[in-house]
C-alpha cells in the first residue's frame, strides 16, 4: 500500500529515530509484515514492535519471523514484546484469557527461547512448563548480535523480569508519580545492568503550540502539552529524573511534533 510506505518515509525524513507499530486485532496492519514493507521504503530509521502480544504466537514462529525481518531490513529491527495491553483482543478472537501469573510464566520461557534462537547454536532444545522444543534448526539468525529485545511492563513482576532480561523497557503508566515508583522497581531488580537499559515512554495525548494533534477525546496516559520549547524542557526533565530517553507518539502527531524532534536532536 503506497500510503503506508509514504508514511514510513515521512517519519524518516522528519528525523524520527524509529518507526513502531503495536499488535492488536483492531484496524491496523499485522505488525511484522507491515514493518517489512516500511523497511523496504526506508533506509535508516529503526523499526520496532511496541509491543508484540505474547499470547498471539508460538515463540518459535515469532523468533523466526522477527529474525527474518531483521535480515530483510539490514539489522534495523527491535523486537518489542509484552503480555498484552488490550484484553478484548483475546476475547474477541476466542483465545484463552489466562491469569497474570501464567502470562508472566509463559513470557519468561519465551524470552529464554528467543535468546537461544538468536544465539550461536544452529539447533536448539528447550524443556519448559509451557513450551517444549527438540533440536529445532534456528534459522535465520538475525543480523544484529545480540538481537535487541524490548519489553512493555506495568506490574511489578513484569518490571522485574524486564529489568533482568530486556535491552529496552517501555514502562507503562498514566501518572508521573507512578512512573517514578515503577522506575525504582526496575532499578532495584536490574542491579548493575541498569545503566545498560534504554527506557521508552508512550505519550497518547500531545498538543504542540496549542494545536490539538491527538484526534478524538483525550486518552488515558501521560500527556505532553505546551509550546515546543516547553515540551523539550518537559522531556529533558523526564530523562533527568526518570532516565526516559526514548519517546513514542502516535501517527497523527508526527507533523506537529517534528519541531520538538529537531530541537532534541543531539541533546
Mean pLDDT: 94
Task: Kindly state the percentage of residues in helix.
Answer: 40-55%
User: If you consult CATH, what is the topology?
Assistant: TIM Barrel
| CATH level-two architecture | Alpha-Beta Barrel
* CATH superfamily (homologous) name: Luciferase-like domain
Fraction of residues in β-strands: 15-25%
Alpha-beta classification: alpha/beta
Number of strands: 13
- Poorly predicted regions are none
Order of helices and strands, N to C? Answer: HEHEEHEHHEEEHEHEEEEHEH
Gross morphology: globular
- Give the distance, in angstroms, between the N- and C-terminal Cα atoms: 35 Å
- Give Rg in angstroms: 18 Å
Main sheet overview: 8 strands, parallel
Tally of distinct domains:
1
